[in-house]
Amino acid sequence: MAPVGAALWRSLCAHQVYGANTDVGKTIVSTILCNAVNHRNAEEKSAFLKPVSTGSLDEADDRHLQRHAPNTLTKCLYQFDEPVSPHIAARQKKFTIPRDDEILSSVHKTLSSWAGNGVSFALVETAGGVHSPGPNGNSQADLYRPLRLPIILVADSRLGGISSSISAYESLLVRGYDVQSVLLFWDDYYQNHEYLGNYFRNKSIPLVPLPPPPRRPQSQNSDSQARDREALDAYYSSVAGGVDVVSLLDELALRNTQRIEYLEEMASRAQKTIWYPFTQHHGMAARDITPIDSAYDDFFQTYTPEDSGQQGKLQATFDGSASWWTQGLGHGNPGLALSAAYAAGRYGHVMFPGNIHEPALSLAELLLQTVGNPRLQKVFYTDNGSTGMEVALKMGLRATCDRYGWDASQEQINILGLKGSYHGDTIGVMDCSEPSTYNQRVEWYRGRGHWFDFPLVKLSQGIWRVEIPEVLRESLGADQELPSLDAVFDLEKRVSSDAGARYKKYIFDTIEQLVLEQGKKFGALIMEPIILGAGGMLFCDPLFQRCLTDVVRDNPRLFDGTKASSTESYPQGDLAWSGLPVIFDEVFTGLYRLGRKSSASFLGVNPDIAVNAKLLTGGLIPLCTTLASEEIFNAFTSLEKRDALLHGHSYTAHAVGCQVAVHSLQTMNQMDGNGSWSEFKNDWKQPHTNDEFRPREGLGVWSVWPHRLVRDLSYAESVDGVFAIGTVLSISLKDAQGAGYTSTAAKGLQARLTAGGPHFNVHSRVLGNVLYLMSSVTSKKESLREIESLLREALL
């Protein structure tokens, strides 16, 4: 089932009616408001939708509207006979229980048809209280959230109603709903309307107290039923014409208009006030800025200037860049939101140095256990990937200078890395990348390192190729062809091959020349494992990264300038760092982005320092961790305060971020353990008709993107190469003018995805001639298959 756009129309003012509890009079309130519409203007059309109803048909809420608001269109989508909770009633039905997405789609289609049929006011009434379960057992507050209809909350006037009403409001608020009005029946004894009136007035939410409806007669004979109906009709006629109710309708209509006007103005206002990152503003127009009203699961709700048919003002847009690679568990994840609210309520923010709080301790222990690297024993908290890499750099340089007796204030200490690397935009780690578009115009940039060119992996014409750069062919040999993606990662076999021997000799000779002949000193080896993200989604041959690590670790004397073979003066053992500290920047590739807990596991390497961010908090809040070995930690231990790692931020180990990260990691670990991705994994394991694309069992390299799509795209005339690992799909397009960050070859494909398909469009970003798409770890197969159709239509 296709995702729905959030429910917003210019011609239709639609609201969802929630109750603070069961039996608080939601349907009576709905009847009053629908009658008020007709009372205000006989030409106006109102409508009432009950998505799910339980109990006797005669007692159904839509039937009540038919009897007492006869000028109102009414509809019930799913009626269950048993007067019990929908999740119980649905199981007792003979037919298939409607899925949540089917319910959402039906609601949206009904409202859309009314919007195109002259209806100006519509109510969607829920069943029971805010968290009463829907047919599939999910809370209604979560079930209907993608529609993000503005809320009319019917508060509880009974004893205990103050608490239940405020609790209902807070539950809606934490899920991103806008509560626009509160109504309740006054009770002269409990006087909840007075207390709640003040409470909601302070939040600029109007509360309208209503006179209680007439009591139903105890006798249910025909005469009493007729008198009951007459009394109700008189009640509705009286209350619906009240000044407060009519004024409320005007207020709700005004807010609907204001919401649309705000969305219409957002782009132009942003153009005047916002300085966007990674954006050249010259020639940028308001039309180049996309207003996002909300987001849920994998989708933004983006504003469309004009109603598209009956679609409305908001359209579901697949977040194809995973919001700069952060999205793990979907936008608006209620579990993460509740974790954040819990930590915010429990702590707010507390100063970290010299203190400890439960979220920070729990996350540190869970993260070390999840990553499973025996070298890593200490967790240092920062705010984002760039600052986390700054800390990693400080750690590595200090450990190396301490071991080799270097004075960094007297001589330059460089790093070893790969061309195309990107480790952030703060001024220190910017120097850890070669000159590029990102840093050449930064006035303090110096570039302190040596960056190896390296072989790239891609699927082209159905064959997995390891392409050797032209300048390295003499040293590394010709291109290689491998039978499968698993074969690319079969490093225990490849490292002992001729290619492995050539890689190691080239790396050793290069470092030897840099150190012994040019006199350079190196303080750390820094790499993004497997995929170099911002550099252009470069899939580095994992064999090269493995050999680079092995050469550095196997030749410690190479770096102190002696080239002696003895290593006795240096710490020994499996957990000791050797040669240089190995730093893995897993900000992008770590924590299941590539389908595994750690991207280091692809290389069979345990780094001495590892940095994680992005997926750490499931995409909700900034947080970063730098993990280090005990040996690295000890390099900062002395009697002098100045020798400590004097790095920190005001919000270090922010309790909200740590609590959310614990929830995120636990969820992803659970998904990994319970087979949530089995279907995707099996798709990449099964034998296929094309033998040269058949993966070998056992290595477990897989992707959410179908193997046949990847194979077929590799044959496309405009495609230079393609690969998919985990949630990442990268498509390199041919460009006669040359590849790279300045290429515009991928813009056409990006525009085609933006235009979208029958159900949604796709937000994506390009890196020169490379268009990449990224899902969350919770993406639904149906959404990915629709994107597959768009790609096939655009490229094949």
Structure description:
With 796 residues, this protein is of the alpha/beta class. It has 25 helices and 27 strands. It has two domains: 13-214 and 226-258, P-loop containing nucleotide triphosphate hydrolases (Rossmann fold), CATH 3.40.50; 334-673, Type I PLP-dependent aspartate aminotransferase-like (Major domain) (Aspartate Aminotransferase, domain 2, 3-Layer(aba) Sandwich), CATH 3.40.640.10. It is 36% helix and 18% strand. Strands 3-2-4-1-5-6-7 form a seven-stranded parallel β-sheet, sandwiched between helices. A hairpin with a 2-residue loop joins strand 26 and strand 27 (770-774). The protein starts with 12 loop residues before the first strand and ends with a helix. The model is unreliable at 688-698 (pLDDT under 50). It is found in: Mitochondrion. This is Bifunctional diaminopelargonate synthase. Residues 207-228 are annotated as: Disordered.
Instruction: Summarize the amount of helix as a percent range.
Output: 25-40%
CATH topology of the largest domain: Aspartate Aminotransferase, domain 2
Span of the ends, CA to CA:
25 Å
CATH architecture of the largest domain: 3-Layer(aba) Sandwich
Mean pLDDT: 92
Secondary structure layout:
Elements: E1 13-19, H1 26-40, E2 45-54, H2 61-68, E3 72-80, H3 86-92, H4 100-115, E4 119-129, H5 140-143, E5 151-154, H6 161-174, E6 179-185, H7 192-201, E7 207-210, H8 222-240, H9 243-273, E8 292-296, E9 299-303, E10 314-319, H10 322-325, H11 334-346, H12 358-371, E11 376-382, H13 385-404, E12 413-418, H14 427-430, E13 449-452, E14 456-460, E15 463-467, H15 473-476, E16 480-482, H16 485-488, H17 491-494, H18 498-517, E17 521-527, E18 531-532, E19 538-539, H19 542-554, E20 582-585, E21 609-612, E22 624-629, H20 630-634, H21 655-674, H22 678-685, H23 707-714, E23 719-725, E24 728-733, H24 747-755, E25 761-763, E26 765-767, E27 770-774, H25 781-795
Parallel strand pairs: 1-4, 1-5, 2-3, 2-4, 5-6, 6-7, 10-25, 12-13, 12-17, 17-20, 20-21
Antiparallel strand pairs: 8-9, 9-10, 11-22, 14-15, 15-16, 18-19, 21-22, 23-24, 24-27, 26-27
Helix pairs in contact: 1-2, 1-8, 11-21, 12-21, 18-19
InterPro entries: Aminotrans_3, Aminotrans_3_PPA_site, DTB_synth_BioD, P-loop_NTPase, PyrdxlP-dep_Trfase, PyrdxlP-dep_Trfase_major, PyrdxlP-dep_Trfase_small
Region (Disordered): 207-228
Protein name: Bifunctional diaminopelargonate synthase
